[in-house]
């Protein structure tokens, strides 16, 4: 039996991107800086974690060697494993953005060679003409925000006014994205989703990568909290991805978390929603039981990015990594002869870095399964090598942009 399990630790970069300076990210290193802060005691949090970063299972899959290969620096305080298993290396991103769709599409064999559309970084983010069109087609009294912002911050700042006026909170970031936050009850979740679908069509000519629905609950700035009903409305990938090639050959792609949204549900056999890393892991384990010969289970673990990277929460990120690492043996126990699991990331989001945006970094590649011997696969020239390795493993024709390391 040959099955593949692709697990994306959203934003778990390992530094060293050769073009990081172009993005203002020279020196960023998500893993390296988390380990450094943990070793120094700066990432301790009472009752949550303490001491050096502890990732024994990923270390046994070559994570420390990957970090040294990627950035030239071994993560501080992390002890070396007794043995290393499976294939390990890292990959450069060739796509022009450092955003979620670009990273995921490239992982699936389709780099983004074009430039996304972006909103201005100075002054108001959205033009009066764009706002007028959105308000007219969405039957809105107006919008709030109209700026670059952190989602949690802008909800705390404008949430009460949103409830009072009925105006949705609209904002962007350094990514190609239009985000709409609205209260699930006062504004309505279905109304928010419908509004995002309207805005998606309006923004298509501007080549904006995603429109994101950010529902929240609570009645005051002190109690507002985003819910798990987030929806991403992406444009279609520019050409068929690994997912499309699998589905065309009657293989199943079980897309867990926000994977379905990222690929605009193209090449997805079944989308499985789950909220939070533990729930995503449970859904992955269940999907492994359901996957048949030739199938792909594809999961995005979003908490690393959404809850900790963007919020610059070093301790939270470290604790989430340690919790994920502890559950990796459950993945291993589900695997059968012929299976492969690949751990990787889609970009960085260094929680020690300035600002709140993604960081341009290399990403780790850890591939393991029954019968896999230890091998260093080096620095791959594109994330697309990951998708082509899965294609080779599942015996489907290769794509145009990557090279298998299997």
UniProtKB/TrEMBL annotation:
Names of the cofactor(s): Mn(2+)
Cofactor, how bound (note): Binds 2 manganese ions.
Transmembrane segments: none
Pfam families: Metalloenzyme
Record key words, sorted: Cytoplasm, Isomerase, Manganese, Metal-binding
EC number(s) reported in the record: 5.4.2.7
Metalloenzyme domain: residues covered: 3-396
CDD domains linked to this entry: PPM
Pathway assigned in UniProt: Carbohydrate degradation; 2-deoxy-D-ribose 1-phosphate degradation; D-glyceraldehyde 3-phosphate and acetaldehyde from 2-deoxy-alpha-D-ribose 1-phosphate: step 1/2
Entry's Gene Ontology molecular function annotations: magnesium ion binding; manganese ion binding; phosphopentomutase activity
Positions annotated to bind Mn(2+) 2: 305, 310, 358
GO cellular-component term (any): cytosol
The protein, known as: Phosphopentomutase
Organism the protein comes from: Rhizobium rhizogenes (Agrobacterium rhizogenes)
Lineage: Bacteria, Pseudomonadati, Pseudomonadota, Alphaproteobacteria, Hyphomicrobiales
């Amino acid at each position: 039996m040959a099955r593949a399990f692709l697990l994306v630790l959203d934003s778990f970069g390992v530094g060293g991107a050769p073009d990081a300076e172009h993005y203002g990210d020279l020196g960023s290193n998500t893993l390296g800086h988390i380990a450094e802060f943990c070793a120094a005691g700066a990432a301790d949090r009472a009752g949550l974690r303490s001491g050096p970063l502890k990732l024994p299972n990923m270390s046994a899959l070559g994570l420390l060697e990957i970090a040294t290969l990627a950035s030239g620096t071994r993560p501080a305080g992390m002890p070396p494993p007794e043995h290393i298993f499976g294939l390990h290396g890292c990959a450069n991103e060739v796509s022009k953005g450092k955003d979620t769709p670009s990273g995921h599409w490239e992982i699936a064999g389709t780099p983004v060679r074009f430039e996304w559309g972006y909103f201005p970084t100075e002054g108001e983010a959205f033009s009066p003409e764009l706002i007028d069109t959105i308000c007219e087609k969405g039957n809105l009294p107006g919008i709030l925000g109209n700026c670059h912002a952190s989602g949690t911050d802008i909800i705390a700042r404008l949430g009460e006014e949103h409830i009072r006026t009925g105006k949705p909170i609209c904002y962007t970031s350094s990514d190609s994205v239009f985000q709409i936050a609205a209260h699930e009850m006062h504004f309505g979740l279905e109304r928010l989703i419908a509004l995002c679908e309207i805005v998606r069509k309006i923004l298509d000519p501007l080549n904006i990568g995603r429109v994101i629905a950010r529902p929240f609950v609570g009645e005051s700035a002190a109690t507002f909290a985003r819910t798990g009903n987030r929806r991403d409305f992406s444009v279609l990938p520019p050409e068929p991805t690994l997912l499309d090639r699998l589905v065309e050959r009657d293989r199943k792609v079980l897309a867990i978390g926000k994977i379905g949204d990222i690929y605009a549900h193209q090449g997805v056999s079944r989308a499985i929603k789950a909220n939070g890393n533990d729930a995503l892991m449970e859904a992955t384990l269940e999907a492994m039981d359901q996957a048949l010969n030739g199938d792909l289970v594809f999961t995005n673990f979003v908490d690393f990015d959404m809850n900790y990277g963007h919020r610059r929460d070093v301790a939270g990120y470290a604790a989430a990594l340690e919790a994920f690492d502890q559950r990796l043996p459950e993945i291993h126990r589900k695997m059968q002869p012929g299976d492969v699991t690949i751990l990787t990331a889609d970009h960085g989001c260094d929680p020690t870095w300035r600002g709140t945006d993604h960081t341009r970094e290399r990403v780790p590649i850890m591939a393991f399964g029954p019968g896999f011997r230890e091998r260093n696969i080096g620095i791959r020239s594109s994330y697309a090598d990951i998708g082509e390795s899965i294609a080779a493993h599942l015996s489907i024709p290769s794509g145009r942009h990557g090279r298998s390391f299997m």
